[in-house]
Amino acid sequence: MIYDSLIHYIQERSQSTLMPSDIALIREAFVYKKLRKRQFFLQEGDICKHFGFIVKGAMRQYTVDQKGSEHTIQLYIENWWASDRESFWKETPSIYAIEAWEETDLLLLPKANGSYERVNAIPAFNEMRIKLDDNNSIASQRRLRASMFDTAEKRYEELTLRYPEFIQRFPQHIIASYLGITKETLSRIRNQSAKK
Amino acid sequence: MIYDSLIHYIQERSQSTLMPSDIALIREAFVYKKLRKRQFFLQEGDICKHFGFIVKGAMRQYTVDQKGSEHTIQLYIENWWASDRESFWKETPSIYAIEAWEETDLLLLPKANGSYERVNAIPAFNEMRIKLDDNNSIASQRRLRASMFDTAEKRYEELTLRYPEFIQRFPQHIIASYLGITKETLSRIRNQSAKK
DNA sequence: AACGGAAGTTGACATAGATCAACGTTTTTT
DNA sequence: AAAAAACGTTGATCTATGTCAACTTCCGTT
């Protein structure tokens, strides 16, 4: 069953135990949705109305600048939470798009109709969420530091170590834009390292 | 009283009301500490044992690389929370230093002796914390995007708009390193803009 | 007030990575 | 299977920003 992976995910990341009533609430609150390749979870200009848990698949979040180049902000695979927090919280139009890169199974937690609050009130969920936020904050600080102070080559190497899945599942030009470099530069970096 | 500013801060950022017992707990859990200019809240290699709420003052968080140059990761002023989350959570030695840039009044929430858990169990505090985490996550995503895709000049302009206080209270070379550029480049950017 | 150190400026030069353009390869669509 | 689109590579050149070094200005300490 599709909900099992979410329930397992929550349980694994908290001390508290999920009660049967909690599980019932989760099944009720989260809505299943399947996206085909290249379908959008969120389009630029729309308000992000869900937190999405990825059961299976891969997605990417990006913006397009005035010149028409895409900048990849985040990549997502199984067991990641996809959302534009700013748009979700402030209910403002998003500047990002989030697109399924592979066929993707999602469980959507809507902001509307109190689902979000009721789920957050589950102790195990709240614990998991605090840990998730901490890890996000640690990861984005790391990524920021790297983007400001490390070379493109070092950032690529670190990515291959930390998230090897990304490299296998997304094409090079997307990896490049996630690293904040051009596809040409990434191609050269890869040729360089290959020679070593 | 020094605790009032913290209590006011929490109350302002939550729906729930702080009960007298909550306030008593906060006064008990948070420890007051004054740092003089250039004193450290955290030194590189130490484990970060507190979340620090800044009542008054200004601090900065930085690393020193192999070449001896300092990279400023974060600046803090009144009503900001200072901490190295990674070190705090994982209880690993920090790669950062956090230093008082002005004389600073802090309220420290220790990780030890259950203070942290008890305070987090206060509903108003938990709500405030969720909002704080969301805002941090939004801010660091914004900063990451800017560092990867905007020019130094644009990043400086945005900083002057978003956090004008930083520019007034920290010297230029620290602002430069917060922006991920050298002091020479920042100096040139400022001269450029002045001419316009 | 005068000294010493920290902060900021300016110029000459170096370099990582971007841009542009052409071409090769792989994948998708028909 | 052919055509089209997406993806990746390579070379030439350009540009924003870094590096190094000399100099000036400001500020805190005595």
Automatic annotation (TrEMBL), chains A, B:
Pfam families: cNMP_binding
Tree of life domain: Bacteria
Domain named Cyclic nucleotide-binding: residues: 33-112
Listed Gene3D superfamilies: Jelly Rolls
Protein name per UniProt: Crp/Fnr family transcriptional regulator
